[in-house]
């Protein structure tokens, strides 16, 4: 008989040996250019560029398709009546759709700004909420080089436009102040708004997701997903829907990634109806997306994700493990409860 701790350790060790984990390790912090040390001394481990020859590049697929070239083996063009963008799918991953360059540069810039300035605004919750409570105007505060402080003496420092209503108990405890004003109050905690912005890892729109319980908490206050984002999601979800059906998003999770972050292999299994698609919008720098199978033992397919690309996962694809290695983009995941 083994203890619970021993069983957990054995399970963790087994997970480290899976095909999916092997791919994560292979592509983690991938390097596309060879390292050139200043001296001729022997280079250290990790400076060799990662072999990306097996990574599917849908930008190249799109360019080749536009030029009349054949598609790579296993990649299919998906014809969708009334949809004005090229859509590709993978032969042995039914329900997975890739829409390269779905957004224009102007659209990407707009949604990047919304992701930073608007989406983390209360009542939307973020990873910072548990520590600091609702934070109003984080992006503007970072632009103006302000500092978040914890203090009871806020009369001279409150910026009503940045910090919102006084009705929130947290807004009385953590407020943004000018850097020059911080020394005027006794502060328990202080952190630069820019540093705080860099710590942002997720925010939720619409119905709020409780990460501690891994479910949607309908009792938490929330706003509807912005109309413009709903319109974009409905438009892009068409290839993954039966003809004539509409898409009604009720919740979204926005993931923010830094240069050393990654999103480990997982299933999006908290929604009630898996026949409805997930719409994933990528913004920012290039990443590698791993699409596995129904177990972690299935060898995942690696593909580049570029800013403006959109991925749809519906039906059987909802049962596939997936994740990002060296995920540099902001990535917005849109869910539909049907």
TrEMBL record:
Residues that bind Fe cation: 266, 268, 322
Cofactor binding comment, as recorded: Binds 1 Fe(2+) ion per subunit.
Name of the featured protein: Alpha-ketoglutarate-dependent dioxygenase alkB-like isoform X2
GO cellular component, one term: cytoplasm
Family matches, as InterPro entries: Alkb, AlkB-like, AlkB-like_sf
UniProt family annotation: Belongs to the alkB family.
GO biological process terms on file: oxidative RNA demethylation
Domain of life of the source: Eukaryota
Key words of the record: Dioxygenase, Iron, Metal-binding, Oxidoreductase
Residues covered by the Alpha-ketoglutarate-dependent dioxygenase AlkB-like domain: 196-324
Any Pfam family the entry gives: 2OG-FeII_Oxy_2
Co-factor(s): Fe(2+)
Single Gene Ontology MF annotation: oxidative RNA demethylase activity
